[in-house]
């Protein structure tokens, strides 16, 4: 899988995740989002051993942490749209 396909897959998955959170009326707090982004990176990079893979492992850790951030962003966008602010 190349980088373009990875980004497309990330976009598709985060669209579904944001929609799922929106449908469930999930409560999401901004400080928790940043904590989740950071902890996801650390878990993937260090605990799962991606640091051993060099640049590829680093990019996997970044991608997994961006998943959290993008999911929240899409959830926030749906909430704002429902409230008429977008």
Question: What can you see in these coordinates?
Answer:
- The protein has about 90 residues and is mostly helical.
- Helix content is about 80%, strand content about 0%.
- The protein contains three helices and no strands.
- It starts with a helix and ends with a helix.
- The mean pLDDT is about 95.
Cα-atom radius of gyration: 14 Å
Order of helices and strands: HHH
Helix percent reads over 70%
Please tell me what the overall shape is. globular
Structural class, by secondary structure, is mainly alpha
Beta-strand portion reads under 5%
How many distinct helices? 3
Calculate the terminal CA-CA distance, rounded to whole Å. 35 Å
SSE map:
Layout: H1 3-23, H2 30-47, H3 55-82
Helix pairs in contact: 1-3, 2-3
Provide keyphrases for this structure:
86 residues, mainly alpha, 3 helices, globular
At a glance:
The protein has 86 residues and is an all-alpha fold. 78% of the residues lie in helices and 0% in strands.
């Amino acid at each position: 899988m190349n980088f373009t396909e990875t980004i497309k897959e990330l976009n598709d998955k985060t669209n579904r995740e944001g929609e799922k959170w929106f449908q469930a009326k999930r409560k999401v707090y901004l400080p928790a989002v940043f904590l989740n982004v950071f902890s996801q990176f650390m878990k993937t990079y260090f605990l799962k051993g991606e640091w051993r893979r060099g640049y590829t492992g680093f990019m996997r850790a970044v991608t997994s942490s961006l998943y959290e951030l993008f999911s929240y962003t899409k959830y926030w966008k749906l909430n704002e749209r429902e409230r008429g602010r977008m």
